[in-house]
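Entry under discussion copied across for reference:
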Amino acid sequence: MQKVSDIMTTKVFSLTPDTDISEAAKLLLEKRINGAPVVDKNGKVVGILCQSDLIAQQKRFPVPSVFTLLDGVFSLGSSKALEKEVEKMAAFKVSQAMTEDPVTVTPDTLLDEVASLMVDKKLHTLPVVESGKLVGIVGKEDVLRTLMP
């Protein structure tokens, strides 16, 4: 069975939390990639920024669902989730729009596990980490290429 190390890309394009959103969008488009890991100054993966995170900036402002009962107002949604969604919509820096604590894999992770993670969690890009440092990235296209003779 193949492992991540057999198919991962080792020349990884990454972002920092302080990168401007407009610069990150430009780079994702220029590189023709769906997402990029976000690393701190020590090389630790702290997030991932995907095209969908950037597209969120074009959404309408979410109106929280509420209902009233006996003159009380009850929210049907989480205020933290609403807060994070609004922050993504108004982001100026990558740190405000990225998905924190992303799912990562190691070079020894088997491809069937990668495929399961991608399908079950609806992920397109997984940072590859070894000893706490970013060493590569694996995307859906990498997995698809394994199906070709």
User: Anything to note?
Assistant: The first helix runs from residue 4 to 7.
